[in-house]
Structure formats: structure tokens, C-alpha cells
């Protein structure tokens, strides 16, 4: 693996343009690799369709977390065939998100949630296991309660989908002994593969919140990234 300018090369050769956007279609036409193209923002990876290893990755000012995650996906595509069909062969390091919880604001900028509430949520998202493990503690919001019977009292929601539930955490909160008005839930739940992949790729698109009777839309919340 070599670093050079704004390019990161996984064997083979790559041409890097530092001053113009990557044209993914033209790159595939020029490339003898054919194969699979993965993109994420300014990241471009190209994989051969006949068992070739990962060949090239381009980046501009992106986090190494993003680079390593796409590289792992690319390895799954080139070594084990289509990653979605070769689940057991695709190993991606679980990612842990530590989220500060508090009252939020709606899309119009108006405050929502319990102004006295606070908390933390530690969420570990595991692609191979298709699980989300959580340790959530909330304070000064009262007892977490389902806003509607049967849908749970804490969730991971999607910003782009207008707050739709991406993962029901199926939380069972219990009072923390010796600490006033504080509740904790800790467990792992299964999640749909598509949701797990998108959370890992785009954590900034997701938030976690905890509901109560007085604040059915969410007493406290926090973005994953």
C-alpha cells in the first residue's frame, strides 16, 4: 500500500488528478479492469471482475475510517465475489459511535425534547454479525416509554428519510441504583444488512433518540457523527 499525493494505491497503477473531479465513467472506460466500482464522496475504488486484487483508490480529504471501510468492502468483492452474496467472507471491523444525548432542534430550528434531559449512547455497529449493540444511559427525562405501543422507546432514526426508524433498539431501561432519575439499557439487537451498511457508510445521516410520555417525539437525541 503506497501513499502518493492524493492517491492511495493497492498494487497496480493509478493515475490521480489533483485538480479536477474524478470522472468515474471515463475511468472505467480507460481501465482494463472493468469490474466493480465503489464510490463514497470523493473516494473511488475499482475492483477487477476476475479475481484481481483491489487496484486503485482515490481520495481527497476523507477520513481513514471511510477509506478502510470501503477497502474492506472491495476485498470482499474481489476475493469472495459480490459482497452482498458472500456475507460470511466479508469481515469489516465493527465501528463504535459514542453519542452525547440532549434536547434537539427540529428542521425549522425550534427546540424539541426535554430541556433538562441528558445522557450518552455507545453504539457498536457490526456488519458481519448484522447487529447493533448499545449501552444507553439517560438522566432527568423520567422513565423511557414507547410513544406508541409496540414500537419501542429508543431507536436509530434516519435524517434523510424524515426521521424514519432505521433500527429499533428494543431497549429495556432499568433504574440505575443510587443515582436519581437515571435509567440505563444495554443489549444487542439484530438489524437489516442494508441499514447496517448505510449507517457505517453515512453515520452523519443517523441519530439515536429516547422517548418518554411527556416527549413522545424524543426526550433526548444525538447524531452518530
Q: Layout of helices and strands, plus pairs?
A:
Blueprint: E1 2-4, E2 7-9, H1 24-30, E3 36-40, E4 43-47, E5 54-58, H2 64-80, E6 95-101, E7 104-105, E8 111-112, E9 118-126, E10 131-139, E11 154-158, E12 164-168, E13 174-175, E14 182-190, H3 193-201, E15 206-210, E16 220-223
Antiparallel strand pairs: 1-2, 2-5, 3-4, 4-5, 6-9, 7-8, 9-10, 10-14, 11-12, 11-15, 13-14, 15-16
Description:
With 225 residues, this protein is an alpha+beta fold. Residues 1-40, 46-60 and 77-91 have low confidence and may be disordered. The protein has 2 domains: 2-88, no CATH class; 95-223, Immunoglobulin-like (Sandwich). The chain contains 3 helices and 16 strands. The strands form 4 sheets. The chain has a 5-stranded antiparallel sheet with strand order 1-2-5-4-3, covered by helices on one side. It has a 5-stranded antiparallel sheet with strand order 6-9-10-14-13, covered by helices on one side. Strands 12-11-15-16 form a 4-stranded antiparallel sheet, with no helix packed on it. Helix content is 15%, strand content 36%.
